[in-house]
């Protein structure tokens, strides 16, 4: 890794909330500053670059021209195809137009978060803007899906470092997620799993069983059908994750979780 050249990255933001970027910059191992300052050349990103406006767009164009076929395109956000793309425009151009242009010369695409992988909240029924994930628009490039709302920062950093170190995609599962982080369900590494297996469940958020730390399945936990690394890598430098904080997993790394999730229907 010390001897590899800095891989150019173009990072687009479309229909999103920017918390995927927020998560990424909090990666602690590897620490994100080491990646951004030493391992990659983050040539374009609306949130982290010093340039803005025409200067920023010129930097992106320069990268697309100079490193055609070499740069990695990261995409945060879904793309609205409704109303001819007018729901998300940047500098007068639609997200779809910008995506198609940036994807053409990319070596590979990383779809960050559930917005880019599945459409996320924008695609929740009735999906008024026709929010569309990246793989449904770009068909001729390798796409790595890194779902989650947001994905874990260390997972994002791990994917980038793998690409930089080995010069190829990480091993992916059948729907395009890195196996290293998405091969197991949250349920498989949950520290409350012994309670599940023993049939010990919290019935309400404030009963004695909840205080005992019993399984949250009856409170809507989606851990048994959610593939993510939360139980092992955890969040905030390995401090905790939703289940450890007392709430079930809402399946934020699975498609359609806004329509399927346990959002307190009583
Ligand atoms: Fe925000 Fe979630 Fe979309 Fe990431 S996946 S940009 S955290 S809404
Ligand atoms: Fe499985 Fe959720 Fe229970 Fe953990 S809390 S054991 S993930 S159902
Ligand atoms: Fe998301 Fe479930 Fe992890 S809600 S953060 S996949 S525990």
TrEMBL record:
What keyword terms does UniProt attach to this protein?
Answer: 3Fe-4S, 4Fe-4S, Cell membrane, Iron, Iron-sulfur, Membrane, Metal-binding, Oxidoreductase, Signal
Q: Record-annotated residues binding [4Fe-4S] cluster 1? A: 17, 20, 115, 149
GO process annotations (BP): anaerobic respiration
The record's similarity note reads: Belongs to the [NiFe]/[NiFeSe] hydrogenase small subunit family.
- Annotated GO MF terms: 3 iron, 4 sulfur cluster binding; 4 iron, 4 sulfur cluster binding; electron transfer activity; ferredoxin hydrogenase activity; metal ion binding
All residue ranges annotated as the NADH:ubiquinone oxidoreductase-like 20kDa subunit domain in the record: 17-162
Full protein stretch here = 51 to 316 of 375
Task: Work out whether the entry's keyword set contains Ligase.
Answer: no
**Coiled coil, from the record:** none
Q: Where in the cell is it found?
A: Cell membrane
Output the lineage of the source organism: Bacteria, Pseudomonadati, Bacteroidota, Flavobacteriia, Flavobacteriales
Cofactor dependence is on:
[4Fe-4S] cluster
Q: Which organism is it from?
A: Yeosuana aromativorans
Subunit and interaction comment: Heterodimer of a large and a small subunit.
**What's this protein's name?**
Hydrogenase small subunit
Record: residues binding [4Fe-4S] cluster 2? 187, 190, 215, 221
Q: What residues does [3Fe-4S] cluster bind to? A: 230, 249, 252
Domain named Cytochrome-c3 hydrogenase C-terminal is located at 182-263
A GO cellular component annotated for this chain's UniProt record is: ferredoxin hydrogenase complex
**Chief location category:** membrane
